[in-house]
Amino acid sequence: MDWDNVRAFLAVARQGQFLGAARALRINQATIARRVTALEQDLQATLFERSTTGVNLTEAGRTLLAHAERMESEMLQAEADLRQQDIHLAGTVRIGAPDGFTTYFLVPALKDLVERHPLLDIQLVPMPLAVSLARRDVDIAITIEEPEAGRIVARKLTEYSLGIFGARAYLDRQGRPARLEDLDGHRLIGYVESYALPSAMAYVSDLFGGRRTAFECASAVGQVEAVRAGMGLAVLHHFIAATVPDLEPVLPQRHARRAYWLSIHEDVRALGRIRAVIDHIAAATQARRSAFLASR
């Protein structure tokens, strides 16, 4: 079997559509379709049931999927061996992470790594709920919930704390809450429920005492900017608030603690460039552990 055709099959199986597979492999949709057709002709089997909304694996497709994933694992291992575990750290590493972690920690933390290895291409993508290591949407996933069991290798990256913050000018104008009840006189900023993980909604509700949030952002970065603009009070990460001038803690005795998890698919753990990026992120996180757990 032609490996390029098998890669096309894997991408379609994981994305559930030819267009998504084309985007994942960065080739045009017609090429994907041609390669899958060639594979079906080679095997004399229909691998997908096609519809207007996407594709589903046939019984033959499900049988091939298990073999194709083993082939992929062997190819990844061969790549690592032939490159001597990527000593020169060349190639692409795609990292999916929450926007606040990416913007306020990961980007500056990766600066030294990319300067030392100019042939290493880093791609940072937002981490929506649909991102999958199994589909190879990303090579490394950083999440705020522990990954489910499976062919995933996971480690707790760090714990972090959160508290309520407001802009100094806003607090000078609207007053500084001394009790939980004083929040009733302030506009509260939170997440858009349909775009947030339950754990994020839970800590915002807990710290605000179950009060309604009147201004909602789907991203942590948006919430930070809303606080900076004096639009109200929000629950922010301490490590983020520490980087933003003119923010003050409000009711500092009210805080929450959560954790970041780092995960990879076990098939890519042998690749030197993946290991190097993971080790760099872990070391940078450990070096700033006090900032992640600050109770500023």
Commentary on this structure:
The chain is α/β, with parallel strands linked by helices and 296 residues long. It folds into two domains: 3-82, Arc Repressor Mutant, subunit A (Orthogonal Bundle), CATH 1.10.10.10; 88-296, D-Maltodextrin-Binding Protein, domain 2 (3-Layer(aba) Sandwich). The protein has helices spanning 3-15, 18-25, 29-43, 59-82, 99-109, 111-116, 168-174, 198-207, 220-228, 238-241, 272-287, 289-292, and strands at residues 48-51, 54-57, 91-97, 120-126, 140-143, 152-167, 188-191, 215-217, 233-237, 247-265. The chain has an eight-stranded mixed sheet with strand order 4-3-5-10-6-9-7-8, with helices on both faces. Strands 1-2 form a two-stranded antiparallel ribbon. A hairpin with a 2-residue loop joins strand 1 (48-51) and strand 2. Helix 1 packs across helix 2 (18-25), helix 1 (3-15) crosses helix 3 and helix 1 packs across helix 4 (59-82). The longest helix has 24 residues, at 59-82. 32% of the residues are buried. The mean pLDDT is 88.
